[in-house]
Structures are given as structure tokens and as C-alpha cells.
Amino acid sequence: MADRRAVGRAGEEAARKFLADQGYRILFNNFRYGRYGEIDIIAIKSGVVCFVEVKSRASAAYGTPAEAVSYAKRRKIVAVANHFIRVSGYEGHMLRFDVVEVYLNRDGADGAPHTVKGIRHIENAFGV
After folding, report:
1. DSSP code of residue 35
2. Dist CA 102 CA 121 (whole Å)
3. What local confidence, expressed as pLDDT, does residue 108 receive?
4. Helix runs in the chain, H state only
5. How far apart are CA 11 and CA 14, in angstroms?
6. How would you classify residue 90: left for phi > 0, otherwise alpha for psi between -120 and 50, otherwise beta?
7. CA distances in angstroms from 71 to 23, 24, 58, 75, 123, listed in the order given
8. Is-contact 48 61, C-beta < 8 A?
9. Is 54 left (phi over 0), alpha (psi -120 to 50) or beta?
10. What strands lie across the sheet with 115-122, from one edge to the other?
11. What's the pTM?
12. CB-CB neighbours of 104 under 10 Å
């Protein structure tokens, strides 16, 4: 379990840096809404508010990272996004749901993920 958390943390950090380098302004990290869960990153660029799910993998053994964003997970992300819109005052902005896939090398001292092998940003990955 600790290894999965390390992969997740490393992936989210890499995704934040990647998005910032692409001109996105990060508004929130790990925005939570009760039992519905959380959105990994909420960012804005060119007037578009992006709700970003980050999926990281150190291996393709279980498919691509984006394939792990199930229908149930997408519904939860949409519920949290709706809550964010209600409480944030971002009404009137264009909205988008993105997925950032982060591929990591297992090159840490203990075989833990350490360096980024690649990042793929899937804009408008799913709709409401």
C-alpha cells in the first residue's frame, strides 16, 4: 500500500509541475468533498477551469493509467466538481475534465518510483 501511495504522490507532483509549465494556474490540490471523494488538481488556463484526475503507473501491466478512471470514478469527480462550482464562484467559466497519465521509472534506492518516464495530458477526457 505504501508503494501505491508513493506512486500516487510522485505522479501528482509531476502532473502539477507539468501543468504549471504548460501555463495552467493551479487553484487546488486534492480538493475534497465529503463521501464523494476528491479531485486531484483543479487548474485554470485561458478561462477554462480544468478538473484533473492524475493516474500514475510504474508499469503497464494493468493497462494505461487513463483506463483506471472508471465510470464510478468519473461520476464522483463530476459530483465534487459540481460542489466546487457551487462554493467557489467560478460560474460562467468553461469547464473541462482532464486526465494526466504519469509514467514513472522504478529507479529509487528501494525500487520505488523516482523519476518521470513520460506524461500524457488528455484534455476533455470525459464529459458530464
Report:
1. G
2. 9
3. 61
4. 2-21, 71-88
5. 5
6. alpha
7. 29, 26, 23, 6, 17
8. no
9. beta
10. 25-33, 37-45, 48-57, 94-105, 115-122
11. 0.89
12. 23
pLDDT for 9-42, tens place per residue?
Answer: 888 999 999 999 999 999 999 999 988 899 999 9
Which one is predicted more confidently, 67 or 77?
A: 77
How far, in Å, CA of 41 to CA of 19, rounded?
Answer: 10
Would you give the DSSP letter of residue 36? Answer: G
Q: Which residue has the higher pLDDT, 1 or 12?
A: 12
Residue 18 near residue 100, CB atoms below 8 Å:
yes
* Chain centroid offset of residue 74 CA: 12
Q: Could you read off the pLDDT of 48-63 as tens digits, one per residue?
A: 999 999 998 877 777 8
CB 89 within 8 A of CB 34: no
Q: Give the amino acid at 22.
A: Q
Indicate the residue type of 53. Answer: E
